Amino acid sequence: MKLNNNIYNRFQSKIGQIAVLIDPEKTNTRTEISNLVKKSEFAKIDYFFVGGSTVTRKDFRKTIAILKTLTSIPLVIFPGDHQQISDEADALLYLSLLSGRNPEYLIGQHVKSAQEVLQLNIEVIPTAYILIDGGNQSTVAYVSQTRPIPRDNTTIALNTAIAGSLQGNKIVYFDAGSGAKKEVDSTLIANVKNALNSVVIVGGGVRSLEQIDQLSQAGTNVIVIGNKIEEELDFLLDIHSYKSLK
Ligand SMILES: CC(C)=CCC/C(C)=C/CC/C(C)=C/CC/C(C)=C/COP(=O)(O)OP(=O)(O)O
Ligand SMILES: O=P(O)(O)OC[C@@H](O)CO
Ligand SMILES: [Mg+2]
Q1: 185 is in an annotated binding site
Q2: 23 appears as a binding residue in the annotation
Q3: Ligand 1: residue whose CA is nearest its atom 18
């Protein structure tokens, strides 16, 4: 485990940064990855997040290795389980699923991978991972056998973020789930940013520049986009135009 804070400092340095989520289960050939990298570099996206709820170790390693040869955009692991770790990335989001009450995702996965994570030569960033109901059942909720926090219960969401931060997590990651109908509410983000001096990452159901803009205005440090870019690679061109206007 590296003791520098390069990626964390980068997360903290700005609001409205963009991460493209690559699910190695869906995107794992050199041609696909290379197209994605070209457009992402043009759009000046800030990070690649790599991970998925149902990825094999082989696809995960392969995707990271290919990415590493193609780009210098930072690679951040967003692990669906304890096997999704690699020395070739730049950082690991060390997730604890705090919205749920399943011990396997609070501590079980961590114990299983403790020795391996300790030996890793990359930055490890403790992250309070909080699922918010996005209007449909998400794969993450299903796989983790947990229930997300109701969308309108800002108090529980805020208190979960505060508790996560008091426990030493350096990042709060609110996720409405991949393919969510509704993204996380900006009011919640504004409340959390008001209460805590913490890096906030938001993902799930972000499909438009308006949503990106709202979430950044609420103070989100990093906005994660998966499905929309998988479905329409040219959304990266819109992100390019949006960023040029800033
Ligand atoms: C201790 C280590 C190394 C890891 C912790 C593992 C934990 C606690 C994970 C939290 C629960 C979890 C299953 C998170 C998954 C996050 C993720 C990579 C989501 C990406 O989206 P998918 O859910 O794969 O989307 P699709 O439905 O598009 O496949
Ligand atoms: O695929 P989308 O809906 O963009 O979700 C991204 C991610 O945060 C899910 O874990
Ligand atoms: Mg997946």
Answers
A1: no
A2: yes
A3: 52
- Ligand 3 centroid–CA 244 distance in Å is 31
What separation, in Å, do the N-terminal and C-terminal C-alpha atoms of the chain show? Answer: 36
Indicate whether 245 pLDDT > 90: no
User: Is a pLDDT exceeding 90 seen at residue 3?
Assistant: no
The CA dihedral of 35, 39, 122, 141, to the nearest 10 degrees, is -80
Q: For 174-217, what is each residue's pLDDT tens digit? A: 999 999 999 999 999 999 999 998 999 999 999 999 999 999 99
Q: Smallest Cα–Cα separation from 146: which of 104, 88, 194? A: 104
β-pairing verdict for 222-225 and 91-97: unpaired
Ligand 1 neighbourhood includes 51 CB (under 6 angstroms): yes
Average pLDDT over residues 104-115: 98
Domains of the chain, with CATH numbers?
A: 6-245 (3.20.20.390)
